[in-house]
Amino acid sequence: MIDPFGRTISYLRVSVTDRCDFRCVYCMAEHMTFLPKAEVLSLEEIARLCSVFIAKGVKRIRLTGGEPLVRRGVMTLFETLGARLGDGLDELTVTTNGSQLARFAKPLAAAGVRRINVSLDSRDDARFRAITRWGDLNQVLHGIDAAQDAGLSVKINMVAMKGVNEDEIAPMLEWAHSRGMDMTLIEVMPMGEIDGDRVEQYLPLSVVRANLARQYTLEETAHRTGGPARYVRVRETGGRLGFITPLTHNFCESCNRVRVTCTGMLYMCLGQEDRADLRTPLRASNDDALLRAAIDEAIARKPKGHDFVITRRQKAAAVPRTMSLTGG
Ligand code: SAM
Ligand code: SF4
């Protein structure tokens, strides 16, 4: 799959559910209304969709959500996709809040998952609770232990929030790197309606990076994933630190990815509303021809880039759908 700007699409993110056992303040309102079941693709439908994407050249698949590991039976999907590793698929990964990892780390490793991303915005109990509203820090920390015990390589994702966890960035980095985990910092993105005010939460990573650079030697690396992260190596810790800066940097020129929501909508760009309905062709026929045609048509209109903005005047979410629907 090659888009109009010559970018080869080889990476697919699939949101397997919009549901979650946390209610992170930047992601969801506390009283979220979730989608009716009939609208959400079955695990079999997701597996079929992924297999069509693999046939079309997708080499890496990341399952996300919502919280992917709270979807009932999700391990069967990992197993089905894991069976394609070395048979069209190079890598199967997951982004998780870690709450279910104590239970699922071993089965994930057995299914062929080698690397996972775990979101962790604070290592302070009360703060963790304030950010996630419903999360239990200890459960997540045990989950991370279990993942490392199972041999999974763990990367920590931390959303940087002004006045909320700013002071924990350096300690988190030290902790993660001391345990052999890379870390990625994420800027708050204007997605979905939430209860709070994003202008208040927004902390430009350019500022964070400048602050870290006073304390650490940040060495540029050539490491790229085709995604929005830019990585440095921290000389003092020996670990890698990524910055996902959709608002202060344009990361679109090397974008190799598309996203499918749990309702089967294909988004060609995280920051644009244009989408293609894959659920209709998926449910219309057992023959994949319609589905393949719908994907081709969508890739042919993948946009050049996004236009996220957070300003004082424009407080409304630039993209009305939440990250949990689209899959972060
Ligand atoms: N529930 C899983 C988790 O939290 O890792 C997977 C889905 S979550 C939507 C994926 C990532 O998106 C998490 O690292 C989360 O912190 C991040 N995220 C969610 N909403 C965001 C927002 N508005 N801006 C920036 N990052 C966001
Ligand atoms: Fe759930 Fe992840 Fe969104 Fe937090 S960021 S509410 S854990 S989907």
Relevant terms:
328 residues; alpha/beta; TIM Barrel; 12 strands; 30% helix; binds S-adenosylmethionine; binds iron/sulfur cluster
Please characterize this protein's 3D structure:
The chain is α/β, with parallel strands linked by helices. The protein has one domain (11-326): Aldolase class I (TIM Barrel, Alpha-Beta Barrel), CATH 3.20.20.70. The chain is 30% helix and 18% strand. The chain has 11 helices and 12 strands. It has helices spanning 43-55, 74-82, 101-111, 125-132, 137-149, 169-178, 198-201, 205-215, 279-284, 289-299, 323-326, and strands at residues 11-15, 60-64, 91-96, 115-119, 153-160, 182-187, 218-220, 229-234, 240-244, 257-260, 265-267, 275-277. The chain has a 12-stranded mixed sheet. Helix 1 (43-55) runs parallel beside helix 2 (74-82) and helix 3 runs parallel beside helix 5 (137-149). The protein is globular, with a radius of gyration of 19 Å. The two termini are 22 Å apart. It binds S-adenosylmethionine and iron/sulfur cluster (SF4). Iron/sulfur cluster is lined by residues 20, 22-24, 27-28, 65-67, 97, 119, 324. The site of S-adenosylmethionine has 19 residues, from strand 3, strand 5 and helix 11.
Question: What's the layout of helices and strands?
Answer:
Layout: E1 11-15, H1 43-55, E2 60-64, H2 74-82, E3 91-96, H3 101-111, E4 115-119, H4 125-132, H5 137-149, E5 153-160, H6 169-178, E6 182-187, H7 198-201, H8 205-215, E7 218-220, E8 229-234, E9 240-244, E10 257-260, E11 265-267, E12 275-277, H9 279-284, H10 289-299, H11 323-326
Parallel strand pairs: 1-2, 1-10, 2-3, 3-4, 4-5, 5-6, 6-9
Antiparallel strand pairs: 7-8, 8-9, 10-11, 11-12
Helix pairs in contact: 1-2, 2-3, 3-5
Bound molecules: S-adenosylmethionine and iron/sulfur cluster.
